[in-house]
Amino acid sequence: MKQAHRVVGTPARRADGVAKVTGAARYAVDLSVPGMAYAAVVRSTRAHAKITGIDRTAAAASPGVIRVLIGDDLLAAGLTPYYGHVVLDHPVLAIERVRFHGEPVAVVVAETKREAAEAAELVDVSYEDLPAVIDADEALKPDAPVLHERRGERVGDEGMDEGEKGLVGNVCAIARVGWGNIDEALARAHLVVEGEYRYPMLYGYAMEPYNALAFFDQGDLVVFSTAQHVYMVRRDLARMFHLPLARVRVSAPYVGGGYGTKSYTKVEGMTAAAAFFTGRAVKLDLSVEEAMLTTRSASAHIRARSAFTKDGMLLARDFQIVMNNGAYTDNTPLVNSKTANRCFGPYRIPALRVIARSVFTNTVPSSSLRGFGAPQGNIAGELQMDEAAAKLGLDPVELRLRNLVGPGEEFMPGKRPLDADLKDDLRCLASALEWPGTRIGRSIGLGVSASDAGAYPTSTAAVRIHSDTSVTLFTGSTELGQGSRTVLAQIVAEELGVPLESVGVVNGDTGVVTYERTTGASRTTTITGRAVQEACRDARRRVRELAVQAFDLPTSEIEDTAGGIRARGRGFSYGEVIEKWFGAGGEVLGHGAVRRAEGFAKMPPFYEIGCTGLELSVDRETGQVHVTKLTTVGDVGFAINPALVHGQDAGAAMMGLGAALHEELIYEGGQLVNPNVVDYRVPRFSDIPDEMVHLLAERLDGSGPFGAKGAGEGAGNTVGSATASAIGRLLGIFPRELPATPERVWRLIREAERVRTRKTE
Amino acid sequence: MGSREIHLRVNGGERRVVIEDQTLLIELVRSLGLVGTKLSCDSQVCGACTVLLDGRPVSSCTTLAIEADDKPVVTIEGLADGAKLHPLQEAFIERFAFQCGYCTPGMIVSAKALLDAYPEPDVATVRHWMDGNICRCTGYQTIVEAVLDAAEQMRGAP
Question: Is B127 close to A23, i.e. CB distance below 8 A?
Fold first, then answer.
């Protein structure tokens, strides 16, 4: 039963609405300080090479140039010239060697942006080429050139459950999941579906490219940037400059798109180094082309087998996954382990074996992107359910229903039991899509996923109740557009019983707000939301304490009311209690913290559900796919702001559609050949499905506030497999490689024709 | 590198400014503190930098500032009437037609040009006209709805 709520559960207007529609919202790229200098980056023109010399003479003499900085300068100054939250192997600027085309080699600081850019052209870097490896399978071969003969220092344990064993050659990370006897299960199977699947390398294209403004203020480092995880970046910068955490301030104002692409350190180290060596405030704005050379997502090559009984019950699944993670570690261990956890689906599987390996190559380093690991694994895991259904003559929805785990059921040993009713979600989705579809020339594809989301559940929050009963919330969660300022303010208003308009939010600035581990993995509503609730409850407790003293009453005679307390037969607002206690002015501070305990004791903190399907048609002449309908089921436990949940679902699904149909970073030789938004095609208005339906499933089964759990990634996770499935059901052959570009689909059509001809012959 | 003085008419205000010949329109408006106009793709495909030049939507990232000499320029900051938001701005808020907001200024300016040209657009017209504006967050549907709402609102207004 839903409880009666006042503010949560309503589509409250966005707190950042007026600022964003009037152009008043300030992003890091809009910031400037007096006397600021500008930086430009010199990038490697080689995929893999030894740096034999860097001649800075001409650049240094160029008009307006203040300093030309290289990696050796950081070493000479005793700074830590590497960053990385798991492995310290990513050089701020290349040292001795470059490992991908586009890697930063030098930074030019000048009085103007144009002077910096012009001088950057004059930095003369000489290289001695080394053999390069671009493909991940190639990089695994014994004779492949090795990118990291010596591994960087381990500074974090995210995704490193297997330790360092097996990390030889170019293997950056290994994850294993499994149980039961695979070989025995395969041997007695009625059907084994087997295949190789490929998910593309993607660029998130957050529309505000990476940028930072850095300066030192009496020895304290201050950085404004596009960072999603301001506290993670703070740790990297503190290590780099040997500063205490307290003396590094990282602030992210409004962020122009994140989707995981702005997790962890990007340009902050370079910019801070430029400020350190010049003594100036320095601004570095990357272009989109440079941003595409900064971070991408890992592509995946998956060899998968799924074994079934003749009734379509899963007996075993076997996945061997190779991911291309590029030149440095960054977030690879975590993405890799999530891929392993997320590929086999929320199904009952008697025997499972998953081995995921991420491999260093001479390409742009990969890191997080929306759903990380889930879309990659899903293409194999879910598509094999459809392939099996086709072979067994079973309905794919029915096949899934037979195998799905139910609410409260553990599907990964020792982990949190499933906190969702996926069978019901799937039935809702199928019904909304009018499954199995009757329209000639159209086909439906759908899928489900349950991602171990939320990341490590460390979060804190603070609320200040002012003497007029208005409230300021302090949170380390950054506003990426997901609407955290709005949702968290709704939670405060509900908990404290104050009007939403009287709640202000200060966020994303390590110098001001309380600790938040990350803003990612769909965690803010669930985990930060719980910390905010705790902070509100702490503030209420303190108000009661003040009332006890101010009114000289026993605690038992004070009760909480909306926006205040009740004592001596009358109500007092928070402000009245505060002013009474202080005599004049004053405020109350509440602090909340959550950790891996109580509701979050079991990992993951929650499962993020994906339940998306679509209907499409294919132009048999051109191979062009047209999506006629797209439906999402947002299984979020409780929608604190339904409009924002719909926004997350629509956005994630549309981004998933980009990867399913268009997007792919393409390497030719050692060079990325489409690092621009002309050649890397993202969804546009003309790609909107004819009809979009966003459903909500609210069963109050989440571990977050009011039974909520996260959204933001799930709706996109199954779009790739659903697209491939719909195309396959239409053509008779399932595409096993995404994106399903017109050329690939056209080839499938021809192949299907050949198969039919052979059959009739 | 030459420089020249131009007569600038931005958001109803007028002034003379000296610019270098190669100055781009986006550089000029942002240097005036009108930083609502955003740079993204820098190659005329994303629409984030859209402003109205002489009533027409242009990508200010690939338009020279000298082209704005003596022509009216409207940026996102010029749409609201004091504290009163333009119907498009109201509709974008009402429909949750933005998330990160980075594309929003260009999006709203393009939509204004659309409604100036077609006060009664249908869904197909909106999708076609707005195809030059990329949004990575919303999935577009809410933007289409917002534009249609605003059109209706503006037609209804006296």
Answer: no
> Is A9 part of any domain?
no
CATH number at residue A107: 3.90.1170.50
Number of separate helices (H) and strands (E) present in chain B: 5, 5
When pLDDT is cut at 50, 70 and 90, the band that residue A167 belongs to is: very high
- Which secondary-structure segment (H or E) carries A290? helix A288-292
Cα B69–chain centre separation = 18
First to last CA, chain A: 62
Three-state secondary-structure class, residue A683:
coil
Check A208 against B76: CB less than 8 A apart.
no
Residue A549, classified by CB atoms within 10 Å of its CB into exposed (0-12), middle (13-18) or buried (19+), is exposed
Residues A418 and A306 in one domain: no
A254 plus A363 within the same structural domain: no
CATH 3.40.190.10 fits B87-156, yes or no: no
CA distances from A451 to A128, A267, A337, A603 (A): 44, 30, 12, 12
Query: Does residue A316 share a domain with residue A254?
Result: no
- Rounded distance between C-alpha atoms, residue A28 and residue A268, angstroms: 12
Q: Which of A292, A321, A349 is the last residue of a domain?
A: A292
**Which residues have C-beta within 8 Å of that of residue A425, sequence separation ≥ 6?**
A448, A609, A611, A633, A635, A697
Query: Which of B28, B50, B99, B107 best probes binding to A when mutated, by most A CB atoms within 10 angstroms?
Result: B99
How many domains does chain A contain in total? 4
**A619 plus A522 within the same structural domain:** no
Q: How far is B69 from chain A (nearest CA, A)?
A: 23
Spatial neighbors of B153 by CB under 8 A, at least 6 apart, are B87, B90, B91
A70 — phi, psi (to 5°)?
-130, 170
- Residue B136 and residue A655: Cβ atoms within 8 Å? yes
Listed in order, the ranges of chain B carrying CATH 3.10.20.30 are 3-78
Any idea what the CATH number is for the domain that residue A699 is in? 3.30.365.10
Q: Are residues A589 and A667 in the same domain?
A: no
For the complex shown, is ipTM > 0.90?
yes
The CATH 1.10.150.120 domain(s) of chain B lie at: 87-156
Nearest CA among A147, A201, A150 for reference residue A359: A147
User: How many interchain CB pairs under 8 A, A with B?
Assistant: 159
Give the chain B residue whose CA is nearest to the CA of A259: B137
Give how far Cα A288 sits from Cα of A44, A374, A416, Å.
Answer: 17, 26, 40
Provide the token pair at B64: 């020279």
**Contact indicator for A193, A387 with CB cutoff of 8 Å:** yes
What's the pLDDT at A297?
A: 98
Q: Which domain holds residue A487?
A: 17-24+456-600
Report pLDDT digits (tens) over A613-670.
Answer: 999 999 999 999 999 999 999 999 999 999 999 999 999 999 999 999 999 999 999 9
Q: What percent of chain A has pLDDT over 70?
A: 99
Contacts of B42 in chain A (CB under 8 A): 287-289
Query: A379 and A320, same structural domain?
Result: yes
Of all residues in chain A, the one with the smallest CA distance to B75 is A23
* pLDDT band per the 50, 70, 90 thresholds, residue A400: very high
pLDDT tens sequence across A231-276:
999 999 999 999 999 999 999 999 999 999 999 999 999 999 999 9
- For residue A4, what are the contacts with CB-CB under 8 A and spacing of at least 6? none
Dihedral class, residue A531 (left if φ above 0, else alpha if ψ from -120 to 50, else beta): alpha
Average pLDDT in the A120-134 region? 98
Q: Is B3-78 a CATH 3.30.200.20 domain?
A: no
Place of tokens 């000029």: B28
